[in-house]
């Protein structure tokens, strides 16, 4: 389904992503972060982004749990759940460590910010093609070689994901189903069997891409021509103005809430 976001100028979407990325990294109040997360997920639902598989959600949950442990153990705060973490009677290590309530609040804020950022980036990549991204970056002042590097990075992410899936399927045909049914320790031990072919395949693809762009004399000229031109329209100005006003409101609420 094509939405109005697909028709926006890619420069508008790039500027909006940069604007909200700055806002996401500035806000540090839970109500504001939760509100931004709700807006991002609502927009993601409106654009009809394909849902991720269970591995993606499990990975995100593992990242948030890891952040929670770090914040509860080493983050700031004076409200303790357990203090000390190691009893005093333990030789040498007694009295060390603590778990803080403040770590839970900080983790909720970080989780909202992280998921909101990923939602916005997924909306941008789905509604904007690689050529449009490169053209938009070039029209914003980047040279076309830098634009190509950024766009190539976006294109390689799904290729690596598909390559990893093919490697896992090949191993399953050989009777190795540890990545599907194995425990965490077993998966960790089997990780080199996935990482090594993936890295070698990435190096091979990089060599092929390098040979292809050298054969086309890529980078010889300082500028290049584009078969499509960009033009800001009323919707671009309107959407950017709305997003700018929303960013100001979010930052204002963040500094007003105590």
Terminal CA distance reads 42 Å
What is the residue-mean pLDDT, rounded to a whole number?
Answer: 82
DSSP helix fraction: over 70%
Computed over alpha carbons, the radius of gyration is 23 Å
Portion of residues in beta strands equals under 5%
Low-confidence runs (pLDDT<50, min 5 residues)?
none
Shape: globular
What is the number of independent domains? 2
SS-based class:
mainly alpha
- Distinct helical segment count: 10
> How would you characterize the largest beta sheet?
2 strands, antiparallel
Compressed to H and E, one letter per element, the order equals HHHHEEHHHHHH
Strand order of the largest sheet: 1-2
Tell me the total number of β-strands. 2
Account of the protein in words:
The chain is an all-alpha fold. The protein has two domains: 17-127 and 237-252, no CATH class; 130-221, no CATH class. The longest helix has 32 residues, at 184-215. Strands 1-2 form a two-stranded antiparallel ribbon. It is globular, with a radius of gyration of 23 Å. Helix 7 packs across helix 9. The chain has helices at 4-7, 10-26, 30-47, 54-74, 102-127, 130-139, 144-173, 178-181, 184-215, 234-256, and strands at residues 80-82, 99-100.
